[in-house]
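Fig. S4 source data, part A: sequence.
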Amino acid sequence: MRKSVLFGLVAAFIVTSGSAAMADTRWERFHPRRDQVNDRLERQNHRINHEYREGELSRWQVRELHREDRGIRRQERFFAARHDGHITRGERRLLNHEENGVSHQIGR
């Protein structure tokens, strides 16, 4: 009984660890910094829309926050165009700093 439970746990671990590795897309493997920046922009977009639906942000504030996010995305694409589709650590750090500014405006 104990061996079968142990075998089941090991099998479950192998299956879940294998599926997590397969979940990475080609984009995520070859552009991890851009993926991180874009994922964060997407999450912030959802936060902005959620706060608007909850009545925490006005229509004007939502437009302004989305405009700032679009500027960050344009900047990310500009950086990537200079480095064969990649961004440097410093550029990612700068983009994250700018995203922090937008994030603080959402949570006011």
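Fig. S4 source data, part B ends here. The mean pLDDT is 83.
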